[in-house]
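Following up on my earlier message about pyridoxal-5'-phosphate. Here are the inputs again, as you asked, copied directly from the submission form:
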Amino acid sequence: MALLADHLKRIKPSATIAVTDKARALRQAGRNVIGLGAGEPDFDTPGNIKLAAIQAIETGKAAKYTAVDGIPELKDAVSRKFKRDNELDYKPSQIIIGTGGKQVLYNALMVTLNPGDEVVIPAPYWVSYPDMVMLAGGEPVAVPTRLEDGFKMKPEALDRAITPRTKWVILNSPSNPTGAGYTRAELKALTDVLMKHPHVYLMTDDMYEHLVYDDFEFTTPAQVEPNLYERTLTVNGTSKAYCMTGWRIGYAAGMEPLIKAMAMIQSQSTSNPAAVSQWAAVEALNGPQEFIASHNKIFKERRDLCVSMLNQSTGLTCPKPEGAFYVYPSCAGAMGKTTPGGRTITNDEEFVTELLEAEGVAVVQGTPFGFGPAFRISYATKTEELEEACQRIQRFCASLK
Ligand SMILES: Cc1ncc(COP(=O)(O)O)c(C=O)c1O
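Thanks, got it. Here's what our run produced:
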């Protein structure tokens, strides 16, 4: 009998991790490699948050199990955050704290999908959505978007994708991997479609809420269309804006029976998220928020640098995104061209492999995100390194004939 279960055959290893491994191997072999693959801020966790964690340890608050779905103090901080930032009212019984946004999303899909249930996901998408849906027995339904539309899903496309089997629509704004953020009007056009389909639930992944630039105003679907409140699970977390990817705290708010079911499978799998991290997250949400604006000033400069330098590269087209710390250039103009070593590039995986080998720049190919030929750059890295990396990309593109 085979050791591994059949359902594993539908799942792929993360492409983001594969490129990081390849870059590490080249580095070990002595090459100078600039990694633009990682999806996390290069900044350290702010001092006040670290201090709150140290105090939790020293006062014994970190030593024991907590309530499976989170300490009351953190649920209270989450509830106040939703009111303050999103004009949404959630009681503690409508809130769950999980081990990162990832666990929260995974649990929500696990407790709601029956075999064959469909989940609509605009593409390009975060690599984990389709695989999580498949692990939970559902069917991902990708809705292609266009670079010309800034990778934003049109309401007509959403309407066409919905069938009687649709259980969820997942929205992620600003997006990983494109950085695309929906304006209030664009979101309203999408929520209008959902109002026509009362059997469909909405999962909104607001992980990059605070990382927005220029005068972009973040809004979340249940705020834009209050009639969707009863059908929306709003997911967020402290990983990205608070530079806490390693602490593993995410949260969600929504319908009480759903939150209760999510807590039940959490109780039978991981139990509570780490107590020390929960106390750190209380400080993150309740404490000073000013550092976010200072980080965003730097992220915006880096975004502008990347967009400008990539658009000056032969064969690349890069839209200017509203948020997150990613840009997503198309490399369609490089397809069919040949490297100085005589290899012809026919897809984005070959493009990123040749780029890594020729110039030591690690980026992630677009195909696993559901849109190619393209690639994702994470600009959450030192500005000087980023500039050097973009120069290398320009040189690589110019070398293709
Ligand atoms: C869109 C999106 N959602 C969720 C997550 C998961 O975040 P966490 O690290 O809190 O699990 C990520 C992390 O990369 C992400 O990009």
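One observation from looking it over: The CA atoms of residues 327 and 377 lie 5 Å apart. Hope that helps, and feel free to reply on this thread.
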